[in-house]
Amino acid sequence: MEEILKGIEIILPEDSLKEKLEESQKTGKPLVVKLGFDPTAPDLHLGHLITLKKLREFQDLGHEIVLIVGDFTAQIGDPSGKNKTRPPLNKQEIKANAKTYIKQLGKVIDVRKVRVQKNSAWFKKMDLADTLQLMGQYNLGRMLTRDDFANRLKSDSPIAMHEIVYPLLQGHDSLKIEADIEIGGTDQLFNMQVGRHLQEANGQKAQTVLCMPLLRGLDGTKKMSKSLGNYIGLTDEPNDMFGKVMSIPDDLLPEYINLVTNFKKEEKDQMLAQVTSQPLETKKMIAANIVTQLHSEEDAKKAEEYFQNQFQNKDDASKEYKDVNFASLGLGDEVILVDLLVVLNVRESKSAARQLIESGGVQVDGEKVTDPVMKIETGKSEMLIRAGKLNFFRIIFD
Amino acid sequence: MEEILKGIEIILPEDSLKEKLEESQKTGKPLVVKLGFDPTAPDLHLGHLITLKKLREFQDLGHEIVLIVGDFTAQIGDPSGKNKTRPPLNKQEIKANAKTYIKQLGKVIDVRKVRVQKNSAWFKKMDLADTLQLMGQYNLGRMLTRDDFANRLKSDSPIAMHEIVYPLLQGHDSLKIEADIEIGGTDQLFNMQVGRHLQEANGQKAQTVLCMPLLRGLDGTKKMSKSLGNYIGLTDEPNDMFGKVMSIPDDLLPEYINLVTNFKKEEKDQMLAQVTSQPLETKKMIAANIVTQLHSEEDAKKAEEYFQNQFQNKDDASKEYKDVNFASLGLGDEVILVDLLVVLNVRESKSAARQLIESGGVQVDGEKVTDPVMKIETGKSEMLIRAGKLNFFRIIFD
Fold this sequence. Notes:
Chain A is of the alpha/beta class. Chain A is about 45% helix and about 15% strand. In chain A, helix 14 (about 280-295) runs antiparallel to helix 15 and helix 16 packs across helix 17 (about 350-360).
């Protein structure tokens, strides 16, 4: 109970979460905790882990998670036809995306206990009169204070009129499932408050709104998001996941320790004390912890080894690169990777060299290359080649 | 054809009316002329006559008038519940109001040729997805430029969100009936342009928008309207109608001559030339013309006679008021009308004086008084009393 009140960026109204939890404990009636899901964006990343961990805490206390699948608007797409990133999805696509999404949730919460509710159940029955009725319950001026609407109006960027209905639809979902709590990012704060308003206007107790803190992405400054490409996916392979965590800037370590690891409090305190003196070791501990949460301890161990071999040992080996003057090889200008490796005596035959490349054993300038016929660019000044565990070349062009 | 292009305040786009009329003449295909009717306001007044006369001209050229009965939103009323002047109407009320409305139209246009179309025919079939689709076709920023929305937003007056959908619904009506022309007051300019936009967005030729000039009401300054009480109803009795026209300020005469009489051009010119020198005679001609249009020539004649007797003869007689010093009558301070008349020898008996009052034959300060026991206010300086056709007194108090 103490734990569940912690780590939340915004609780609105402030005391209502505590009150509802106590009330539920007294009456034995579980709270309905709403989580909205947009089926056009099924991929979850580490930023979502913060919310999922909080949901797990609710679940562990016996409360009910209701996952609202926003299939109604997803099927419509963008009625103005201007937003190409919102094509209409058909039922099969929505089903597949929901499945993907729930599978990801399953990495943290018990999805068998989650109630999954498509909002088309009520929205497909709504007619024009119902829609006007719903809209009549909300003040336009208030809706226009939502940051993105206000900014776009101010800068004369177009807003198609249907867009301002969507917050009402999201709020209507809360009304339909009689949500006690809605959880989301701070970017959802406005919409979740619309839910509160509609519930109150219809004689329901308004939901408590919980905003979880946002996690910064790999670039170290911007909020982690798929569209910015600075994300670590919840379903990333262990090696990728480990490597990506290792790539975050050091000053993000406290944020990651606090928000996405599941270390005990004392462990966290100890790590926070050592981030500046031992950033690399701390980062490895974070990476291993995250991979353990989302895969397994064994996966975490293997990923750490892989990282050690692929990246960290490479740094050690970089001192042993052998310089080779490209012109001295007498290969002309049109050279492909497999031929270069044979000339360099990495393997004796072309087929053996091809096999090495295709099995992922060759890196060019630190990037794995699996295409044996990749053309060698002779226009640059030099190129680093690592083939297998032992062969390191610095090819120098004129 | 020349005539129909005249007397229109705004034609939008300017040349399109002429083009459409010529096109229709060439192809023999009549134009669809849309007139919207709000069933919550079935009473027409002289200001509407301007539009009706224009519609009559279209009808006389063989074009089709489509009357859109806005029954859909009338049945909803005000979803926000805040506007008490828009209670939801039931089907019977709407039917009755439409009947009343059409009866009034019949005073000017041939209602047998009018196509009456309830817009619930399409709106009751629209669902939430259709509504979002419709809203997606219009830009919010543009909608917010409509005067009343802009002003209310600026002054922080509440606007319920459904309100901004109504212009789209009105525009959608134009789309459904494929209107070539929509006619309305200048206060409808914005909404009629929304119709143009929606028609174009759906591959139709945009309707031509015609705004008819507004007529000022009895007060001489404000637009004639039922809610301001400064109106002459199209179904007012001949005597009332005549009298109300006679009561307009003289400087409105040119406006009334031009907008609501049906004199020939030469007659109008002659009248316009004499408004300053002969305002009373001109006003009578206008009043008679209007009563003739909306009732009959005979009604107009009778109404003029009635006016003459009731009001104008009074003015002539005003020179013959007999001065009476109230104190000299020796009646004290608590006097009622019937006693005063007996003392003044208007009638010999109290019952005869009472009968005269109750039959409407007595005016006090120009106002008919039918209450025999009306107290005489002795606090003012003087009081004019007219009793029957012959007795005129100026009672002078101390």
